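Hi L.,

You mentioned the student needs an example of a multi-chain input paired with its predicted structure. This one should do, with 325 residues in total across all chains.
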Amino acid sequence: MSFPTHRPRRLRRSEALRSLVRETRLSVDGLIYPMFVCPGNKVRQEVSSMPGIHQQSPDQILEECREVEALGIPGIILFGLPETKDPQGASSLHAQGPVQRAIEAIRKANLKLLIITDVCLCEYTDHGHCGVIENGEVANDPTLAILAKQALSHARAGADIVAPSDMMDGRVAAIREMLDEHKFENIAILSYAAKYCSGFYGPFREAAQSAPQFGDRRSYQMDPANAREALKEVALDLEEGADMVMVKPALPYLDIIRRVRDAFDVPVAAYNVSGEYSMVKAAAKNDWVDEKRVVLEILTGIQRAGAGTILTYHAKDVARWLKAC
Ligand code: PBG
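Structure written out for the whole complex:
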């Protein structure tokens, strides 16, 4: 028995009805705001391909963090732009590096914000790859110890969660072991488990000054054509001790988010990456789309696909819009 008995439009007649039966409720509670920390003081430089997003020194980061907290956004993820780069990414370990200084400033100010740090080498190496180079290739195992030390330096500075984004095999285990050895057993690991080799990271590489100087990242980031392999990557990271897993980018990989959500009972995050942000910003600037409407639709879609946590450059705008609703 179908029409006229069944009329799905009955429940769409008013906002009250639509709201009553809404399946996905986007909220600020699952949003994480990404931020770029550079050296110095009083530095605040807008990223040209990412309107509204800045490279900032730790003092300025702290100011924006106050705003982020006031908007009810629960956390941030920090990316660092170091003073110097070398083949090993040694500056990523400095206790006085920009990320470490920013964490300390936020902690000292007693903000409630969760501090997540991106753990990777690409921002710190002169060649721009996410691992060290041996014989012209990105070498897996020698990279692990450096990543583990970097995670430790973030934990020492006061990070709550470390998020390795390098895609080296075995890095979650190496980081877990290093943290535990130094009594940081309560610091969680959010692994970028299914991170695809994507053209959508373009604007980020300007923001983080982390473009590879030769070749590309295909030998370590995932092939966009693969879905089953994502489940294997997630399973391995969970076995190694990841507390949460991430799919990245978000929009071209909603099927992956859904499959990971269905296959594993752990918190699943998705990264609504720089290129996804910049496309919306560019279209909105031209009045080709209604920015608020498409951003809320995009984030609702990512949440509906199964992501409980969404890392997004739109976080502050979304928090304002949801407050006004
Ligand atoms: C570092 C890293 C990247 C992003 C997050 N961590 C860039 C890359 O892998 O090239 C991308 C985030 C974004 O595009 O917003 N490895």
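You could point out the following to them. The chain is about 40% helix and 20% strand. Residues 118, 120, 122, 130, 165, 201, 204-205, 273-274 surround PBG (CB under 6 Å).

Best wishes,
N.
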